[in-house]
Amino acid sequence: MTGPSGRRYLVTGAAGRIGRAAAHLLAARGASVVTQDQAGDVDVLADLAGTDLSAVVAQAEAAGPLDGVVLAHGTYPNLPVAEMTVAEWDRVFAVNVRAVMLITRELFTRWVARGTPGAIVVISSGAARSARAGGGHYCSSKAAVEMFTQVSAIEGGPHGIRVNAVAPGLVLDEVIRPDTPDVPDYFAQTLAATPLRRTGDPADIAEACEFLLSDRSSWTTGAVVDVSGGSHTGRPHLPLTRDLT
Q: Which of 49, 119, 179, 229 is geometrically suited to a Cys-Cys bond with 68, CB 3.0 to 4.6 A?
């Protein structure tokens, strides 16, 4: 068995564009998928900021043990540090980091007790390694997620548990290219800084998640896979010149 067919997965944040795409792709390829979100077109298991997440996993396993999870939930407010309250900071870390840790801990406990392997894919962000104004809490939370991914990979590896992350660039419901009319300035600047000159499609990220859950990546753990059209590489939109003065 190399793909998701016959396996059982939990996808958190499944009402969001990335979580929804991942859940649909896994199901289309034969997996049994349990979904979680606070609202939307999926079953609501819990608010990940304030719930006993062992109960979330137990509910997800009610019809059978999980083989893996895509942790696609997240919150991404934009606020200057000088205006940020402690509650706003804590909310971002509760959802983006603590919930990842708690679900990972619960799955580790169950998989180790059963002696079965498992795979975890965490949705990070290019913001983990690319600071931007207003992202003090969000960028920091995603940097924490990437380090947690690597620590978890070290601890899970001897038990056959793989933990990887996917770091998307700008992903929209509709792909935007340079010739797309009426592109907002922020998107235009992002396109200029993206070597492949388009925004991401949710399916781009879903494909990466499916690969990292599958046996095709059986020797991959602790990886952060950038699926960003190349926007993580630097500043490709700067003009070329020999005049450096």
A: 119
Confidence of residue 238 (pLDDT cuts 50, 70, 90): confident
CB-side neighbour CA atoms (13 Å) of 36 = 26
Residues 90 and 140: beta-carbon distance below 8 Å = no
The residue that leads in pLDDT, 21 or 2, is: 21
Over the range 5-22, which residues count as b (16 or more CB within 10 Å of their CB) and which as e? eebbbbbbbbbbbbbbbb
Q: Are strands 224-227 and 118-123 parallel, antiparallel or unpaired?
A: unpaired
Count of residues in the chain: 245
Instruction: Write the DSSP string, 43-83.
Output: -----TTSS-HHHHHHHHTTTS--SEEEE-------B-GGG
- Return the CATH class of domain 8-230: alpha beta
Per domain, the residue ranges of the chain are 8-230
Enumerate the active-site residues: 138, 142
